[in-house]
Amino acid sequence: MHHPLVGGVCGACIAAASLGQTVTMRSLLEEMTDRDAVARWPEPSYRTLQASSYNRESVHRDAPGWFADSDGTGFIREERVGGRTEWVIMEQDGPGCLTRLWTPYFYYDLNEHIGPSVRVYLDGSATPVIDESLIKLVRGEGSVGAPFAVATARAGDLYLPIPFEKGCRVTMTGRPFYYAINSRAYEAGTRVESFSRAGLDGLAGVLREVGGRLVGHPHTDGPERIAGRVEVGRDLEVGLPAGAGALRGLLIRAPGAVGDPSILRRLAIGMEFDGEPCVWCPLGDFFCCADSIHAFETWERSVREDGEFECRWVMPFEREARVRLVLCGGDGVEVEVGVTTDRWEWDDRSMHFHAGWRPDDVVPGTPFSDWNFVDISGRGVYVGDAWTVLNPQAHTWWGEGDEKVYVDGDWEAGFPSIFGTGTEDYYGWAGGEIPTRRDEFAVPFLANVRVGGIDGTTLGFNICTRSRSLDALPFQRRLRFDMESSFGTDIRNPWNQLGYSAVTFWYARPGATDNRGPRPEAGARPIMHLVEDARNGKRVER
Known about the structure:
It is a single chain. Helices cover 12% and strands 40% of the residues. It is mainly beta. The longest helix has 12 residues, at 204-215. The relative contact order is 0.16.
């Protein structure tokens, strides 16, 4: 899909230009591991776009073909280059940056693990800056190593930033298979230093340093701690220093959840920043452990088998902040909470952290629908989500649905900025085979935390999470995130049931609103009730 530059020049960009700020590969790499950067409105401003192989029969939300699926062969056009055919899969005018590339580790055949080459042309040049097997490139087997290119379950993800000054065109030397490419579109006039191989070689030391930070997460014990028993109607609250500051580390110990997984849903995290309720989410869902404890580690969150949960998202506030644990039902729970805070210079780019939960919902296989994660009004940046799916039947597939993200005026236009190729694809891995417990993984920005895997099928709970770094999603007025509720092109039966719940993570300027407020009554119901609800076809969330 062709994405010309959208919108006028914003005030932040004018300020950036006046300061002489230039976007470079070095600045982008430093931004990738600058935990404070995500909590401020980006400068220079940009819009995140996506090119993917989605089925081109989908043209409008209200038109036939919206749930066409079969998303593995879409492209923009064919063209002749030097006597050969290339398939154009992405093109963009103006200053920007490629931020993420994904593709499966097979090319039309599960035994073909090389496939055609991807070619990346910058600024109108006839010579590509990248020309190598796309599969090997994204899996860290080509010119880029881990953690900037990571192998996942039957797929790979490239996170090396590739900035460009005037434009970018990406082609394939063979007919395209499944792919997704995220990019930034900066405003006209933004200064960008384009990617080059020589520039990449000159940043070897920076790459080592940034790569080390991405995989090395210092443990946050939290110098300010409180321990106690949380009861229904008696919260445990941690006092934070008054005045401008930032919560930089949150550590929660709930060892009782090891033997009693119901605690993971009954115990909720609540946060207020500057008098605004910003976070309400069950502990387990926030940390991808709604059904039981699953140890994993990503850039922002860690879970340990002993019931220790750690969050490293930076959460600024201008005047005051409150962090509390709330019990939604059942017996009291012994917990310990540790927080790490620091000073923060609050300005007109600073944003509050938000996390919202949509509780359990049972969805039939037909009619198809788009299941809403969140709908936000305000100005902010979307930075991630966690998706919990219960598959109560052994021979259905839960991962076919495409993500559809509407930014600002997209909803009125009827087509999203982000249109994907499948749920598991969105979370950085791929289908092609029945997933098993061996497909669980965790890398800096992605994790397949739990695979059902009961009796060698997709039966059971499946939990994925994705956080967004350079591919974060800024929005000026509105962001709506939907995921197609789809069992695949051949599984469209009303008796096929799936159970969904989701958590979304985002930053916003004060005053932003969303449709995911506190749901203590849903938190009081252990997640295992969903198994029976799904088998009975009972919808519990509307």
